[in-house]
Amino acid sequence: MHAMTVFYIIIQQLVNGLILGSFYSLVALGYSMVYGIIKLLNFAHGDIYMVGAFVGFGALGIFGGALGIGWLGITVALVISMVLVGLLGIVIHRVAYQPLLNKNAPRMSLLITAVGVSFTLFNAVMVMTSGEYKAFTTSLGYDGISVGPVNITYTQIIMVVATAVLMLCLYWFINRTMYGKAMRAIALDQDACRLMGINVTKTISLTFFVGSALAAAAGVMAGVYYGSIQFYMGFIIGLKAFTAAVIGGIGSIPGAMLGGLILGLLETAGTQLPFVGSAWKDVFTFGILILLLVTKPTGILGKSEIERM
Amino acid sequence: MSNSVGFKDRLSERMKGKKTRTFLLTLLVVIVTLLPLGVNNYVEEVMTNTFFYIILALGLNIVIGYAGLVDLGYAAFFAVGAYTTGILMKYGLNFWLTIPIAVIFCVIAGIIIGGPTLRLRSDYLAIVTLGFGEITRITARNLKITGGASGLVGIQRPSIFGHKLYQISDFYYTFFVLVILAIIVSLRIYHSRLGRAWQYIREDEDAAEAMGIDPVKTKLYAYMIGAAFGGVAGAFFAVKMTAISPETFAFTQSAMILLAVILGGMGKIPGAILGAVFLVFFPEIFREIGQMRMLLFGILLVIIMVFRPQGLWPERKN
Amino acid sequence: MSKKFLSMLAVTILSFTVIVTGCGTQGSAPSGTSSNSSDTQSTAGSGDIKIGLPLPMTGSEATYGKDMENAIKMAVDEVNAKGGINGKKLATVTGDDACDPQQATAAANKLVSEGVVAIVGGYCSGAVVPTLTIYNEKNLPFIVEAANSSKITDQNPGNTFQINGTAVHQTQKAVELFKKLGAKNVAIVEQGDAYSSDLAKQTEAAWKAAGNTVVSHDVTTKGEQDFSSLVTSLKSKNADLVFWTAYYADGALLIKQLRQGGYKGSIVVGDGSSDPKLIQMAGAAGEGTYVLSPPVAEFLPSAKQFADAYKAKFNQTPGAYAPLAYDGINLLADAMKRAGSTDGKAVIKALTETKDFPGLAGKVTFAPNKTLQESNFIVLQIKNGQFVLQ
């Protein structure tokens, strides 16, 4: 084992932070998109990520025999999970959220409904798996490249690349397609959009589809990368991605991407820093979040708003 | 929403009659007071637990329902109260003396959390309060004085006028008294100038400011009072359980209390009580079905919110 | 309330009741119990001796709870088949504590109100501690079979007996093992819950007292899967040995990520991780990991019969705490016979006087603090995908 000098420690932790950050970004995107369009903090989003991991696990189980459990099998499982969970997102929107939006219900009620959906997903999976951890077995190994004592595996590289690809697709979708334009317009002024003939409800559903699909992708990748999944995994990531979205500026898509990376780096730094350490790293992260919100509540890339409450 | 005439309307008219209301209320109090004589430990435990959550729900109701502030980290106040009492009692302080100290610490916590953040928009406030809730829990877990991850154990039971509180029925009555106090305090505050100020702010914050109400200070009072409720509840919780650990104050706890307030109907005292009752009774009644009960809870929550977002307690038409 | 709302509510509750009743009466789930966490599982007749079992039947530790319940029930059936105790049959009442202190307290009160005369069980330390006084107030003997925090020993109001090795015992074993492996700089990683934290702190104190170094003491969050920054941090501190004191699922991830990150030192895990699933989830990375374990049926020569009977009855291999769970009932039965009654105080006295009771896990004699006089922890190592006794 090479002795690790400070330089190498920093490099390795940077790598760690970026990889962790990409997961956070993918999940944060869903939060930001939904918030941007209907001003709802979708509490159930973390559990969507978890469901995505399980659907991917199931898909891999079904198709793994035929396609093997290498990259081909994984990619197919990933796509299946994204589509199915995306559809689940639409169902949740139509059943749980849209009725409240139609009634102009207070925002708090929407929040509580989201908590209810989260509870439902969380417990449904717990009941179905009897709380057990499932090993997400793939045929991937630990080969990678090393620069001195710094290691990066091929799997990690592919993860980051895949995340970047997904985010680029999203960027293209939002900025270059009619659907994306509609989403952005609705975020600005919903009533005007209705007057112009845009089907607002359908577009919101589409937003949920995309956000959920991205979270599902992150879930499958987490399963592949870490190797095990459990019904509890959505809770923590939900909280973290939430934080990431806010750091970057909730409602802003590039903000979510940036926020995720920043959070990943912050947490990683927190673990290594002598006066923080792993026991306090979450306090460290939340502390920075609170500081940020109090000084610049719209986050790093959010727009400054005069609106209050 | 209500679309049936006849029997239902006549019933609700009757219910609104002041005499009927007072009669029903007195009946309820009598039943609750006499209950321990006829039931076993388990039922008393569930009722005591219910009382406990009613107090917390009433406290949070002031924050959310009266002042309109979103608080996702209410368990932090409850934690501060419980740990303050626990730690002070370890140093030999009499329980009853720890209560005012616990309340003071909670109020200070309320000022620390609320001060810089009450200007924020409600969604941001939600996240910040969530963050503070987690920070409190992790701090309690890491520090030695709070007993670390194992928490505080062996907290002594208090005595009142020479009678030691250790049986479940002792705590039943203690908490019942606290519930009554909490209801009285909630009512008085609602009808006070402060209560009205909160209403104005909820209706139109800018107009209220123009009228001379300082919104930040007024909201801060809500926070502090809510914190005090949490602190008292926490102090009694510590001596009832004799052992407290950080897990009890996780986000799940804050979410539960929030659920109780919203489910029952925000801003209404009977609503908060109903919500707390539902919250405690539901998992106990459905204990038999084990894992499925929380799933059912989640589904019911969604159904209730979708069809009746104003909560379970009927709207008062005024 | 609107009709639509009421009808939806009614439909949901009705359908749930139907589903649940249907599932409940349909026969065994794989683990062999017909209803997962029913508190009224007891088939007690009026003269039966009721024993309360506080176990995690729901939540993340449910598999352990079910495993222990299985073994307990098997022991109860055997005792009853031999005629019961003083002519009466044993019956069990399970109380789900869901590994949570508040639920444990509610469950404890429920058990007490059902008229149990003794308590056997206890898996999560955090859930056991607040219930000790509840049972003691009714003079109920409590045989703890898995929860091993030293806080239980410290807070023992006099009615509690731990037949599993405690954290103190495990710490001794750990320090012994570290010395044997020639480690000097040890890193300890826990998960911030009562059990893992207690074991971690005790080990740290003991290792330092022996003149060695603890290079870092880290806390991970349950449910978080990414340990990469921790791995880098541990590497940078040149730890020869990493000791994981929490549970197997996150332990497996830590092991994988340590090896993936190029960590070459020894890895030791505590008994919370001693589960065959650890091997499955850690995969190739798990090779060579040392595991401190309670006496598992596999390695107990006297337990072969037990293991076969368990397998036949429940269709799976007995879990790590099954032998201890089984022993608990037999010990209680033995104490009741010696006391000649089921009176709480008499049974507690009989338990205190236990000498060399032959359990599957070894002979049971209690030290004055009502823990085992001799530790029964064993050291295993993962070799070729199997646990091997060291």
From TrEMBL, chain A:
Membrane-spanning parts:
6-27, 48-72, 78-97, 109-131, 151-174, 204-225, 283-302
> Which Pfam family is an annotated match for this chain, by its short name?
BPD_transp_2
Its subcellular locations are: Cell membrane
Which biological process annotations from GO are given for this protein?
D-alanine transmembrane transport; L-alanine transport; L-isoleucine import across plasma membrane
Q: Does the keyword Lyase apply?
A: no
Q: Which InterPro entries does the UniProt entry name for this protein?
A: ABC_transp_permease, BCAA_transport_permease
Alphabetized UniProt keyword annotations: Amino-acid transport, Cell inner membrane, Cell membrane, Membrane, Transmembrane, Transmembrane helix, Transport
Q: Which GO MF terms are attached to this record?
A: L-isoleucine transmembrane transporter activity; L-leucine transmembrane transporter activity; L-phenylalanine transmembrane transporter activity; L-valine transmembrane transporter activity
Q: Which CDD domains match?
A: TM_PBP1_LivH_like
As for membrane topology, the entry says: Multi-pass membrane protein
Q: Where mainly located?
A: membrane
A cellular component term, taken from the record's GO annotations: plasma membrane
Q: Which family does it belong to?
A: Belongs to the binding-protein-dependent transport system permease family. LivHM subfamily.
Please identify the protein, giving its name as recorded. Branched-chain amino acid ABC-type transport system, permease component
Give the species.
Desulfosporosinus acidiphilus (strain DSM 22704 / JCM 16185 / SJ4)
From TrEMBL, chain B:
Its transmembrane ranges are 21-39, 51-83, 95-115, 171-190, 220-243, 255-282, 294-313
Membrane topology term: Multi-pass membrane protein
Q: Where would you find this protein in the cell? A: Cell membrane
- GO CC terms, sorted: plasma membrane
What main location does UniProt list? Answer: membrane
Example GO molecular function term?
branched-chain amino acid transmembrane transporter activity
Q: What keywords are assigned to this protein? A: Cell membrane, Membrane, Transmembrane, Transmembrane helix
**Pfam families this protein is in?**
BPD_transp_2
Q: This chain belongs to which protein, by name?
A: ABC-type branched-chain amino acid transport system, permease component
Give the species: Desulfosporosinus acidiphilus (strain DSM 22704 / JCM 16185 / SJ4)
Instruction: Show the taxonomic lineage.
Output: Bacteria, Bacillati, Bacillota, Clostridia, Eubacteriales
UniProtKB/TrEMBL annotation, chain C:
Domain Leucine-binding protein, first and last residues per copy: 49-385
Does the entry feature the keyword Signal, yes or no? yes
Tell me the Gene Ontology biological-process terms attached to this UniProt entry: amino acid transport
Please give the superkingdom of this protein's source: Bacteria
Q: Could you tell me which InterPro entries the record lists for this protein?
A: BCAA_transport, Leu-bd, Leu_Ile_Val-bd, Peripla_BP_I
In terms of Pfam families, this protein maps to: Peripla_BP_6
Q: Which PROSITE patterns match?
A: PROKAR_LIPOPROTEIN
Q: What are the Low complexity biased-composition ranges?
A: 27-46
Signal peptide from the UniProt entry: 1-22
Q: Under which name does UniProt file this protein?
A: ABC-type branched-chain amino acid transport system, periplasmic component
